[in-house]
Amino acid sequence: MASGKGLNATGEFFRRRDEWRRHPMVGNQLRHATPGLGIAIVAFGIYLVGEAAYNRLYRPSGDHHH
Question: What sections of the protein cross the membrane (predicted)?
């Protein structure tokens, strides 16, 4: 029984040492640090696609630069 008690104490020791991994600020730290970054990236992507489409459709005929 002494070895079972030792393993239980060891398991409890490691469980207490790993509690910080389940803390909400550890898993979502980047998301909380940069609010709105995902929306900004999507909006910038839409802008780039729109600008490329505009340049393709309405490019002046004398402009041959790429």
Answer: 32-50
